């Protein structure tokens, strides 16, 4: 009977630790959207690219599939050069399963064209994030329309 109590206590401890790990990850994961928008809006492309894994895959609309920091950095820099200055992401749902997180949201972007006209764009965004060995969460795959 004593060994059954010890085993039950051990299993309960593991379950609670896992649950607390997931709960503590959600605010950090939600902040990634804020970190993305802050870095893009400030023109900090290196910091923005650092939110992705080295081998991340990004599938932007009407573009080729991008793989890795260099391609992703060039894409974001191209958007800045095209006049995009304001970008926002609003989290809709966030789920974690172990060291993988699934995030969906809505995005908005504002671009000023060469004539000074304001163009507003919006759509959906999906991220798959992975927790690295150091505990940091990074975007592994991203797609938006």
| Number of DSSP strand runs | 6
Biggest sheet details: 6 strands, mixed
* Largest sheet: spatial strand order: 2-1-6-5-4-3
Determine the oligomeric state from the structure.
Answer: single chain
Number of helices: 3
Q: What structural class is derived from the secondary structure elements?
A: alpha+beta
> Which percent range describes the beta-strand content?
35-45%
CATH topology: Nuclear Transport Factor 2, Chain: A
Which residues form runs of ≥5 with pLDDT under 50?
4-24
In CATH, what is the class? Answer: Alpha Beta
CATH architecture: Roll
Order of helices and strands: HHEEHEEEE
Give the N-to-C terminal Cα separation: 58 Å
Radius of gyration from CA coordinates: 19 Å
Average pLDDT score: 84
Question: Percent helix among the residues?
Answer: 40-55%
Number of domains: 1
Q: How would you describe the shape? A: globular
